[in-house]
Amino acid sequence: MMPEPRIDKISTHSFILPGFARAEDEALMTAIKQITAEAPLRQMSTPRGFKMAAQLSNCGDYGWVTDRQGYRYQQTDPDSGEPWPEMPALFQALAVRAAASCGFDDFAPDVCLINCYQPRAGMGLHQDKDERDFSAPIVSVSLGVPAIFLFGGLQRRDKPEHYLLQHGDVVVWGGDDRLRFHGIQAIKLSHHPLTGQYRYNLTFRRAF
Ligand code: MD3
Ligand code: FE
């Protein structure tokens, strides 16, 4: 029998699905390798001129980018001028299934941002607010070495809760939680058989 998928509700409209993507881990990593061969992972600069710790790339109709001009979504890779690689059907189906299992029907992601964290890399507290409307949820898939994610409130000063995200875990958040501050603590040095010392995170969004 298929195991019943577990859903940990961490807030009104936020959910952790432990191991939800595990059965597809090798196919997901193979696709990540193909995408990043076309659109390489790179450390982008923030508008203030700092390099982000995580390396990133995208697939889908749009990609999230940052440089001296600001944060935005665009249809082309700024390094090559080429369109971002297509979002694999496997990615799309996983994100839609995860969203639906948390009550978000008809999720139609047009972006998959790929983050790659090396040991000691993290991501400071921020909101995801570059999307045109906030009615769609966001789905995140964690692969490789574990990370502690910081789940804050709607104000930067709200004290964040800590959750461990492990290989294959999926997080879905939307509705009242869509604009919560969140971040990733610096990754500890460890090893995962599929990813080595790295953590990969896929975030599926509806940008436009
Ligand atoms: C947001 N990425 O790319 S996703 C990002 O793991 C980003 O790479 C992180 O934040 C990463 O913008 C975090 C996981 C996550 C989990 C719970 C949240 C994001 C959340 C709850 C509320 C808002
Ligand atoms: Fe974010």
Verbal overview:
The protein has helices spanning 25-38, 89-101; strands spanning 8-11, 14-17, 55-60, 63-67, 70-74, 111-117, 123-126, 138-144, 147-151, 161-165, 170-173, 182-184, 199-205. By secondary structure, it is an alpha+beta fold. It has one domain (8-39, 53-205): Alpha-ketoglutarate-dependent dioxygenase AlkB-like (Jelly Rolls, Sandwich), CATH 2.60.120.590. A seven-stranded antiparallel beta sheet has the order 1-2-11-8-13-6-3, covered by helices on one side. Strand 1 and strand 2 (14-17) form a beta hairpin. The longest helix has 14 residues, at 25-38. The N and C termini lie far apart (40 Å). Bound molecules: N-(carboxycarbonyl)-S-(naphthalen-2-ylmethyl)-L-cysteine and fe (iii) ion (FE). Fe (iii) ion binds next to loops. The site of N-(carboxycarbonyl)-S-(naphthalen-2-ylmethyl)-L-cysteine has 16 residues, from strand 6, strand 9, strand 11, strand 12 and strand 13.
